[in-house]
Amino acid sequence: MAARERNVKMPRRQAGALPEFQLDAHVFYLFTQIFGRRNRDLAEQLKPFRITVPKWRVLAVLSERPGITMNRLAELTTVDRTTLTRTLDRMARDGLVERRVAVRDRRSVLLHLTERGQEAFRIVLPRVVEQNERAVVGLSEGELAAFRATLHRMVRNLDPLYDSRNPAEDADEPGRVITTR
Q1: Which H helix or E strand runs over 142?
Q2: How far apart are CA 141 and CA 54, in angstroms?
Q3: pTM recorded for the entire structure
Q4: For the stretch 63-83, what's the b/e string if a residue is b when 16 or more beta carbons lie within 10 angstroms of its beta carbon?
Q5: What is the pLDDT of residue 133?
Q6: How many domains does the chain have?
Q7: Is 90 exceeded by the pLDDT of residue 102?
Q8: Phi, psi (rounded to 5 degrees) for 162
C-alpha cells in the first residue's frame, strides 16, 4: 500500500537533491546502536546457558506462540532463514524444540518448545528482563507507553499487513512429533 493511500505525508524534495542526513539523528542508525549493544551484552549473559541470541528469540516466540510454522517463526524472530534453520536443528538436537507434523495438513510442520525448552526459557527470561529494564531506566510509564505506540506505528508504516498477521495466535493443533537425529 502506497504511503499516500495510508494518508502518510512524505516529505517533498527537489528532484536529484539529496535529503538532509545526520548520522546521530538517523532513527535506524540509533536502533542499530541499541540492538548491537544489547545483543553483545545479552550474548555474554546467555553464554553460560549455551543459549545464543537467535536461540533466545526462538525460545521467546515459541513460549508465547507454540505450534507455529517455520515461515511464521522466521517472520516473528526476524532471524534470517539460514541462521534460523541451523538454530532450530541445534535446538532440536539439544532437546529444546520439537517439530510436529500438523494433523490437518501433513505437509505442514509446527514448532513447539519441549519441557526442556520451556525450562531454558524460564531460566534465561530474568536476564533478558533485567537488560530490558536497564535500557529504559529513567523513562516514565507514560514515556514507555508513548514510545511503544510510536514503535508500533513505525512497524505498521513499514508493513501495512502487520496487524492482520500479528494477533496472539493459538496453537493450530498438537500434531505428531517428528524425530530428528
Answers
A1: helix 141-158
A2: 29
A3: 0.77
A4: eebbbbebebbbebbebeeee
A5: 94
A6: 1
A7: no
A8: -50, -50
